[in-house]
Structure prediction request, 211 residues.
Amino acid sequence: MDLTQPLSTLSPSLEGDVLTVLAHTEAPLSGRQIATLARRGSHTSVTSVLERLVDHGLAEVQRAGRAHLYRLNREHLLAPVVLQAVAASGELRRRLGQALRGWAIPCLHASLYGSVPRGDSRADSDIDLLLIRPETLTESEMDSWDDQVRGLELDAFRWTGNTLSCMDLTVQDLARGLEANEPIFDSWREDGVLLIGSSLHSLLRGLPKAG
Prediction:
């Protein structure tokens, strides 16, 4: 699914884009404003969609001088479906965090990075997850850790239809990557959304540089 525009899974036409704009604000918007905020569609086509949504009661319209202002009718029977769909990326973060907190071998850090938190993912985009595991795990514990990761990958696919791509490191791996100035560190620092555990800065603070 497109986690940037999740309503497109249910409504891949322009209606989904217009409803997404309406769902993200309670302020009334003009048709031209909605056309600007939507990812596609002309002012004329957006106005046509809005008129149809008003006819079905899912949108409300009011006059403001010569302009028509629209808002989502949040009392409509279908409004909760629209709002829940638009909030899918937040629900994904909640479910991932809940699953990670239940792990028998806790991770030190877990964060989303890449296209999903940046808001430019597509329907075929991976969900990128950075995992920092304990430094020393026995062979048996490592097997359990790998099972946890695979289980989360399966869960994420069932929830979204997208592949969960896990970057699985230790703190020492992080330190070596930072020392080597790996480009992916920029994404972790700039795009990363912490799910559970300590921040990368906290994990690296006071750690000697890898030689």
